[in-house]
Amino acid sequence: MSVKTPSKLEKILRAGHLGVTSECGPPRGSDPEAIKEKAELIRNHVDAINITDNQTSVTRLCSLASCIHLKLMGVEPVLQMVTRDRNRIALQSDILGAASFDIHNMLCLSGDHQSFGDCPQGQNVHDLDSMQLIQLVRRMRDEGKFLGGDDIKRPPKIFVGAAANPFADPFEIRVPRLAKKIAAGVEFIQTQCIYNLDKFEEWMKLARDRGLHEKVFILAGMTPMKSAGMARYMKNRVPGMDVPDEVIKRLSGVPKEKQPEEGINICVEAIQRLKEVEGVSGFHIMAIEWEEKVPEIAERSGLYPRPVVEG
Amino acid sequence: MIVADKKPIEEIIEEIKDYNKILILGCNECVTVCEAGGKKEVGILASALRMYFLNQGKEMKIDERTLERQCDNEYLEEIRDIADEYDAILSLACGVGVQFTAERYHSVPVYPGVNTCFLGATEERGLWTERCQACGQCILAYTGGICPVSRCAKRLLNGPCGGSSNGKCEINKELDCAWQLIIDRLKELDRLDDYEKIFPLKDWSTDRAGGPRKVVREDVKL
Amino acid sequence: MRLQYPANIKIIRVPCTGKIDVLHILRAFEKGADGVYAVGCMEGDCRYESGNFRAKKRVEQAQQILNTIGISGERTRMYNLSSGEGPLFAEIAREMTEKIRKLGPNPIKLAKKKAA
Known about the structure:
The complex is a heterotrimer of chains A (311), B (222) and C (116). With 311 residues, chain A is α/β, with parallel strands linked by helices. Chain A has helices at 8-14, 33-42, 63-73, 88-100, 130-143, 174-184, 197-209, 228-237, 245-252, 259-275, 294-300; strands at residues 19-24, 48-51, 77-82, 105-109, 159-164, 188-193, 217-222, 280-285. Chain A is built from 11 helices and 8 strands. In chain A, helix 5 links the parallel strand 4 and strand 5. The mean pLDDT of chain A is 96. In chain C, helix 1 (22-30) crosses helix 2 (51-68). Chain C is globular, with a radius of gyration of 15 Å.
């Protein structure tokens, strides 16, 4: 697979290195310092940083502007874009806007339902779904065409990603769904947070059985738990999250002040185990409001220093 | 059918309190089946409103009438002779009936007495659920007869999203995940391979997005 | 059993309390009744399985409407008793009459008189 975009993340993955990405949520205000500070903490330990797009439907500074801030710092962004808030005009327009700042990675998502956020009475758009957004970006990039058929002057050069949740239901279509996203044109996948390693490995095996691991880069999603309380919350309250009881038990088994450290240990051990799984191309470390721990996790997991590729 | 729900009596009182003569106009079709605006509901509402206003020291003339349909001119004509006798008409029909009545009787204000909710079915008495959003381009042939446009909270044509859990939707644990239903159904029909076909971008111009719609049938026009 | 119960009560027979509708209750009040109560079979003993449960719900609906329009919902209620409980029937009649007496006359009746 030859490199198709100037994306550093793509080059690292295609060179056969384990890729490392992380994630920052933009602030609920217009001060960009929060993003810059978070990025500064982790920039040397990751290849690219995702910027979430009004995650859980809570209104925040926009993903695109945040990505531009990263770009201006010399940090590689992954623009997350949800179909919840944009119709096909806005999607194409924002893709071009991102490309105009040479943002080279995008994650195509449908987005959490607005009922979870601060505007539950709002409309949602869903003119396209995430699968169709993948197709749209690939068409704009590879064919240089708008949906309407017109040519795009200077088409976007974007490495196309999507999410996958190996734990959502129904399990039997989880791998077919991955295959479907690959058929739509996705090039990298960042998974939902993985705590049930056995189930994830089963999913990977089923993906390998169909040769899917050779058609897409799968970055395993990792989120360290800060406490047993957080683990219980994730298990019970976050849809599509699979947190085995052993994880909760292990965290509860240590005193409260030691739980964050134990959470990091669990995360590091998981990365070390999953590094050996064929088809795992890297890790997406989402330390939610705990970005300062990403360097430690990367270092202890043997993911540091990051490879240097020619830009 | 078109499913409607009753408006709170307080809201209706607010709508009509300044009038003296009101006609409460029911409809014998969908709103009768969903027990929101049929003859019986007209009677209950009329009785309650009469008592309310009487109790407030106001004698309000509140009459009852239920038409076969309010979405059909010929039935609406049945109140031609009496419509002018009223200060206002309170229609318990769906939004279509309310508007059609208003279009027919320009000089009488028409108020809605129900909230029109969706196109749905009676699952059991007292439980009506949505099945169709009238998108104008039916795709049920490809989705095992289950509509993701009306039954998936995100209208996903290539679902399910990551929020599907134990067959339920992320927004409400009592709501079935439409894509779980579709997959179960495809499996029953031995058509699960169809799941991997990517559903192309939908033409929403036949949906609400295309503006007010009409169906013109020259073949049946008189 | 020549049981005494208040003479101010008018009995309306229905084949089953399941026949009673919200509308019947409201119309009775509109016509000037001070109180309306339904007497059904014991829960679980309905000959038609769920008639008395339906009545219970409809009485509740009527209570809600009456409260909304400023007439106490307490003026209507549901009782359950078996056919062999004549003394209880009389007692209920007394209880209901006493309760309604305390609430006073139906305000609609008074409003009508005033309007006339």
